[in-house]
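user: At home tonight, take the chain set out below, taking as long as you need, and be ready to discuss the fold:
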Amino acid sequence: MNSSILKTLSTALMALIFGFLGAAVWSYSGLADNRTRDFLLDNPDMLPQMAQAYQEQEAAKRLANLGDEVFNPFPGAVLGNPEGSKVLVEFTDYNCPYCEASLGDIQRLVAEDPELKVVIREWPIFEGSDLAARMALAAAMQGKYEAFHDAMFELGPASTESVEAAATRAGLNIEQAREDAMSDAVTIELARNLTFAQSLGFGGTPAWVTGDKAVEGALGYDGLKEALEEAGPHSSS
């Protein structure tokens, strides 16, 4: 393990144990650095756990700074119960294979829990997915978000042809949807989602927010269910 990684993990450990103020003071002590380094070398199995705990701590702080905004959906861009007491936020992209793989997990969770509200934040980061994200939000404006969302993943990858096919399958007013897809409301929403993702330190999709946790990656059914159980009912700030 190179010295820069070890130093980062050492700092993380001191921050977790002593608090950031304590870590700043201890960083001036060579003795503290040496003891921490020795501890890490003697207990290498703790390094991944420590790094994860540090990342989760930082994500919780960034999430707290956003307040309740990230939990408030673009009107209609919700799966499950729009008034549900349990809230899961997903940042997704229609050209992301892991997002597609997560669709079944979300559908299963929604079917099992009538109190689950899944807020979808369209975050088109893959090439060619911007049009699909815009049409999805246009579908939300017509009250047909879920129908388009499911059809788009089924008919993807996203292209002009597949987006039109998904819109048709979802029963959209196509001319109105095309106009809404390019509206200021949709453009602003996509910009907001990008800002949220950057603020939370996300590097890709899918990414998730529930309770005070913000994580990314394909968590699978079990991982998502556990995160929701830990979070419990959502209370607005």
Notes: Confidence is low (pLDDT under 50) at residues 1-10, 13-29. The two ends are 42 Å apart (CA to CA). The beta strands are 78-80, 86-92, 116-122, 207-210, 213-216. The longest strand covers residues 86-92.
